[in-house]
Amino acid sequence: MTPQIAVFLVLAAMAVAGAVSLILQRHPIHSALSLIVVMVSLAGLYLLLGAEFIAAVQIIVYGGAIMVLFVFVIMLLNAGEEERTNVSRMARFVGVPLGVMFLLEVAYWIARATSHLAPPAAQLVSTRDLSTLLFREYVFPFELTSFLILIALLGALVLARREDSD
Amino acid sequence: MVPISYYLALSAVLFGLGVVAFIFKRNIITIFMAIELMLNAVNLAFVAFSRALGQLQGQVFVFFVIVVAAAEAAVGLAIIIVIARNRGTLNVERVDSLKH
């Protein structure tokens, strides 16, 4: 086992454990913290894949901005624990093993079907190449995203505004 | 080196867990987090293919997906605030005006 595979296994276990914890936790704030674990371990996996820029953006935008927004809204709305709805016994004892089996099967077949894609030997992709591509070929979509963010900002403001003045 | 198929299998498992969370959770904020989890799983597949094929387009798409996810989170959370203010609950089973 090479060190890379060991690091991959640790990060993958962290990501899956965080995702399972997101499902099992009853309180939304605990789910949000589990999601942060998933995002940080995914950033580690991007580093392992040689995508430094994406790893940094993952930490800053996902782990930082988006999750802060989530935690802020959870605290603003004072979201409490989920009410327990009565899950049928069949769903618990048949559904969970079937779901786990289905997930493992999908993972197995995807891994098998794509196993011919060998990882290219240490061919490093620099952030400079990425930015060249982004600002030469994809400059129009890049500029469009600024409009998208502006419109989202206005939409969020209009939606969340209190209508009490008039 | 780690085989690319490992990353794709992990991506599939994470996406499946996101779907499970989307179906099973009752709190609207947690359902929204499940959507973010699925977006992250797809991003992992994009970066893995980008590495396997030696092309950078996958990483550019991941960049755009992250930007769109940020916009989506802002609007979605505003909608959640409006729902919580109007209906006084975050439980999706209580938001059922169309049924009655």
List the helices and strands and how they pair.
The complex is a heterodimer of chains A (166) and B (100).
Chain A: H1 3-24, H2 28-48, H3 52-76, H4 89-113, H5 127-136, H6 139-160
Chain B: H1 4-24, H2 28-53, H3 57-87
Helix pairs in contact in B: 1-2, 2-3
Give structural notes.
The complex is a heterodimer of chains A (166) and B (100). With 166 residues, chain A is an all-alpha fold. Chain A folds into two domains: 3-83 and 124-160, Four Helix Bundle (Hemerythrin (Met), subunit A), CATH 1.20.120; 86-114. Chain A is built from six helices and no strands. Chain A has helices spanning 3-24, 28-48, 52-76, 89-113, 127-136, 139-160. In chain A, helix 1 (3-24) packs antiparallel against helix 2 (28-48) and helix 2 runs antiparallel to helix 3 (52-76). Chain A is flat. Chain B is mostly helical and 100 residues long. Chain B is 78% helix and 0% strand. The radius of gyration of chain B is 17 Å and the shape is elongated. Chain B has helices at 4-24, 28-53, 57-87. Chain B has a single domain, classed as Helix Hairpins (Orthogonal Bundle), CATH 1.10.287. Classes of the chains: A mainly alpha (166), B mainly alpha (100). Chains A and B meet through helix 1, helix 2, helix 3, helix 4 and helix 5 of A and helix 1, helix 2 and helix 3 of B.
